Amino acid sequence: MQDSKGRNVFTGTLVFVAVVFGMVLSGGLHLTPIATATPDTSFQGRAVTVPPSAVGGLPSFADLAAAVSPAVVSVQATKIEAASDRPGRDPFELFFPRRRQEPQLRRPPQEQRSDSAGSGFLIGADGLVVTNHHVIDGATDLTVLVAGREYKAEVKGDDPATDIALLQVKTDEPFTYLELGDSESLRVGDWVMVIGSPLQLQNSVSVGVVSAKTRSINITPDPSLENFIQTDAAINFGNSGGPLVDLQGRVVGIATAINFGAENIGFAVPVSTLRRILPQLQESGSVRRGYLGVTIADLDFDRARAWGLESASGVLVNEVTDDGPAKEAGIEHGDIILQVDEHEVGTNRDLIDYVASLQPGTSVDLKVFRDGKTIDKRIKLGERPPLDGAVVPQETEEESSIEWLGLQYQDLTPGLKESHGMPEDLAGVFVTEVAPSSPLFEEGVEPGDVIVEVNRVRVSGVDEFERRIESAEPGTYLRFYVEQLSRDRAFYAIVKVP
């Protein structure tokens, strides 16, 4: 009896100790019961704030997602258009062949409806929503879903050139909204989050890092304005227009495009682009941009040395548009633009972004390097026109060559000009073949191009062209000015003489 009682006391003591130990262990590991989060559906007219715990050390994506989600919306776009007047198909024809004498079924023209969905985000308590142009393009009816509630919306502003659209939700309720961040200070490797409605799965969250900046992928009407952020945060169909946010919950980009041939290569319009055009979208509904009327190229080491510059800072003027502002101000191809209105011009992006941010009619001061001297030019900006990227293929022929140049070319004859639709007054040599080993191959010279200048001297034909090349000293640079008729552009090709 005594032994049995002792065993019971021992067993009870052991159970008690185990329970206490389990409670201590649970407290030390911060174990909590599983809970489900419910979205914040209150509309308090406030900007999103993220708890400090989400930005120190390892990021707390849960806190970030909970804070940002109430300001992210789903955009439902409906397009109604007339259906084409085509013969209808009898569904039974799939199983029973139509008799020859049976009259063909025809349906009268009728309206056809198509529905699509994208994402967006609120940028003001008054119901201003940012999304992509391609999400709402052609829509006859727009509905915005905010935290499960539907609101009618209308287009307040639209800019196809940057694929940005501004919507206005029709309501008097104040909304939770996102603040715009700073995409310029964003670094490759920084954490970012994408929130949207991929495949209509609302408030889906994906995270990743900034993979690259200033990407151009040629998907907009004017690729020279493209300045995409690349990210490996998953972007899918339906994410378009949704926010790319930093760890403070501030918008740094607008999810826009994906690469079909890869995994987790997505692109977002930087918020700096939105900041520049937002005032015009709000005031007039469209965007007008300043325009110089030049095509430009970044300088590299060889180009800088070829022009006698020590630094590769600046942009090279490849072509000056006839009757454009730059032409009227005396800008010439071969000029190097170093500065605009006291702003240093390091790359194409510096000049394009600054000029495009100004209104047509604004005057700017350029500092230009020409023939070893720096000169000043004042230009009154025009309005940037839409671009047409049509490419016309060219036929090729073969004639003579200079071996080290890896180039086949011939004189421009009247028959050649006529057959290729060239201007009658065009002079130079016609390129018929470019070897893959040619230094001009890497410079973008193609069959069908016409070389019109060598080192800023016009060449009238093959003889003069070859004399200019053969007279060049080894180690010096040749500057070929090329008219690329197939792409409707002109540019400089730089070759170092071996």
Question: How would you characterize the overall build of this protein?
Answer:
There is one protein chain. The protein is α+β, with helices and mostly antiparallel strands. Among the domains are: 93 residues, Thrombin, subunit H, CATH 2.40.10.10; 94 residues, PDZ domain (Pdz3 Domain, Roll); 97 residues, PDZ domain (Pdz3 Domain), CATH 2.30.42. The strands form 5 sheets. Strands 21, 22, 23, 24, 25, 26 and 27 form a 7-stranded antiparallel beta sheet that branches. A 6-stranded antiparallel beta barrel has the order 1-2-3-6-5-4. The longest helix has 28 residues. The radius of gyration is 32 Å and the shape is elongated. About 12% of the residues have low confidence.
What is the architecture of the domain at 400-496 at the second tier of CATH? Roll
What is the general shape?
elongated
Give the terminus-to-terminus CA distance.
Answer: 109 Å
Tell me the β content.
25-35%
CATH C-level label of the domain at 400-496: Mainly Beta
CATH topology of the domain at 400-496: Pdz3 Domain
Spans with pLDDT under 50 lasting ≥5 residues? 17-39, 85-109, 388-401
The percent of residues in helical segments reads 10-25%
**Major sheet summary line:** 7 strands, antiparallel
Radius of gyration: 32 Å
- Helix-strand category: alpha+beta
Q: What would the average pLDDT be, to the nearest integer?
A: 82
For the secondary structure, the number of strands is 27
| DSSP helical segment count | 10
Q: What do we call the CATH homologous superfamily of the domain at 400-496? A: PDZ domain
